[in-house]
Amino acid sequence: MTCKGADKPRLPVLEQALKYLGVRLHSARELKNKLRRKGYSEAESTEAVDECIRLHFVDDAQLREDYAAELARGNASNRAIRRKLAESGLGGSALPENVPDNEYERAHALGEVKLRTLLHEHDPRKKSEKLLRALLSRGFSLSTALQVRNALLCNDAAEPEH
């Protein structure tokens, strides 16, 4: 019994790299790691990644900016954005300049969404704790999370129940 695909010839390393890039963008580190896991040597992987960079198929700086902006649009905290960039090999302690400095607004938008899921919660203390935990678990600072919680729950208390 033979494994399915065991007798398939292996693609040239550059062709394999382009195949990965055809699915989605990758950082240089991520692409190199994928090629290494596929069985290509360190030298082959490095050479293929360098060629992809030369051809502008891999651009870590642009990918970093695009990924950070996408995370910010998804209401991620600045801390979460930095962590995800580092995990992707696109790190650096400073956020890209294209990330808007509106962390409070992002936390507020996320808090509003969470609050809608807490409509069934009638105990104000539990509602407050759940909202605060949701914001903190997504990387927002305690001060930002407290400000958002206070703003949302003051608004929530002022609205009449239906």
Characterise this structure:
With 162 residues, the protein is mostly helical. The chain has three domains: 42 residues, Orthogonal Bundle (Arc Repressor Mutant, subunit A); 41 residues; 56 residues. Helix content is 64%, strand content 0%. The longest helix is centred in the last third of the chain and has 17 residues. The chain starts with 12 loop residues before the first helix and ends with a helix. The mean pLDDT is 87.
What overall geometry do the principal axes of the alpha carbons give?
A: elongated
N- and C-termini, Cα separation: 67 Å
Radius of gyration: 23 Å
Number of domains: 3
The chain-level structural class is mainly alpha
Question: Which descriptors apply to this entry?
Answer:
3 domains, 0% strand, Arc Repressor Mutant, subunit A, 162 residues, elongated, mainly alpha
What is shown here, in short?
With 162 residues, this protein is an all-alpha fold. Helices cover 64% and strands 0% of the residues. The chain is built from eight helices and no strands.
Question: Secondary structure elements and their pairing?
Answer:
Blueprint (H helix, E strand, L loop, with lengths): L12 H11 L4 H10 L4 H13 L5 H14 L4 H10 L15 H15 L6 H14 L4 H17 L4
Helix pairs in contact: 1-3, 2-3, 4-5, 6-7, 6-8, 7-8
